Amino acid sequence: MKTRQQIKSIKTSHGYVHFPAFFPDATCGFVKSVSSADLKNAGVDGVVVNIYHLLKNNLVDKIARKGGIHRYMNFNKPVISDSGGFQVMSLIHRHPELGKIEDEKITFMLDGKKVVLTPETCIQLQLKIKSDIVMCLDDCTEASISQQEQKKSVERTISWAKRCKQEFERLTKNKRHAKGMKKPLIFAIVQGGENRTLRKHCAKELLKIGFDGYSFGGWPVKKGRLLSRTLKYVSSLIPEGKPRYAMGIGKPQDIIDAVKFGYDMFDCVIPTRDARHKRLFVCKGKNKNKIISINIRKKYFNMKADCDCHFCRNYSFKDLHAYFRNDRRKAERLATIHNLRLYSRMMERLREKRKRGKRG
Ligand SMILES: [Zn+2]
């Protein structure tokens, strides 16, 4: 693959994001089982919140009243907000009786209430919670749909991105940002499934509109395997100097591979969800550069994870196993802290490599 100059960082209102970076999912404005202090101590690069989940839990106004997501979470690192489109559409695809997707808007039922989501309201909600990186509403479809439907989804994604950008500009243009505060950034999502012509068309049209960063949309994994060819191709469509965000990629090896393809940003529930299910990540191999996940059991009681987190400094896997039996909350917190720290250190190593000019 042709080596190109990769972007090293981007500046947000809450500091720089140094690439490559991983963002754990704080869907409802918190990461399950841990506090914001735990997140900070684990050295996370930032978090991702989700507009659908915030709406579902009536949190948008509450967060706005608190002065924004950073104050609400007591967290001063970059926050990405996901448009929630993926969740709404998955819901409608699974239960067509719960909503309707039209070119103009998406209408759906949320706990008995009718909610209308448009590209414009989607941007309004994300700006209302003062997110640092705002995502466009996109038409995310199932991987199995026909080419004709795929084409329609791409056209809708482009048209919605245009409307999102217009609304974003309208709301941020004349607004004075507090001293030192930067205007939020807006990212678009490249759709098109595994069809190269559609991916190319989508990327080209989104680039014409102009965004601060571009994401790989749709399922990045098929039958447990990374869609490497499509990921590489989409990466090659995004010009130098623009961040590439591989949404939903989160297994350590998949992140390492996607960094080689040129991606800069990642988010996934894997490290935190796995931790709550007793799955811990550990470094293996001669140079400790292979990361595997283990299920806590007797075999691993004396294992050392080569980690400097709060859990590894003070407890053993045997202790953790016992906590999972008699103090689940404590166990989940310790396991989550560990997995997040391990991911942070993995990203640090990937950043070091990039600094030295290596791809991954
Ligand atoms: Zn640890």
Level-1 CATH class name of the largest domain = Alpha Beta
Q: What gyration radius follows from the Cα positions, in whole Å?
A: 20 Å
Question: Any guess at the CATH architecture of the largest domain?
Answer: Alpha-Beta Barrel
Give, in spatial order, the strands making up the sheet with the most strands: 3-15-14-11-10-9-5-4
Structural class: alpha/beta
In terms of DSSP E residues, the strand content is 15-25%
Named once each, the bound ligands are:
zinc ion
Instruction: Give the integer mean of the pLDDT values.
Output: 92
CATH topology of the largest domain: TIM Barrel
CATH homology-level superfamily of the largest domain: Queuine tRNA-ribosyltransferase-like
- The end-to-end distance, rounded to whole angstroms, is 12 Å
Outline the low-pLDDT stretches.
Answer: none
Instruction: Report the count of strand segments.
Output: 17
Number of helices: 14
Q: What oligomeric state do the depicted chains represent?
A: single chain
Structure summary:
With 360 residues, the protein is of the alpha/beta class. It has 14 helices and 17 strands.
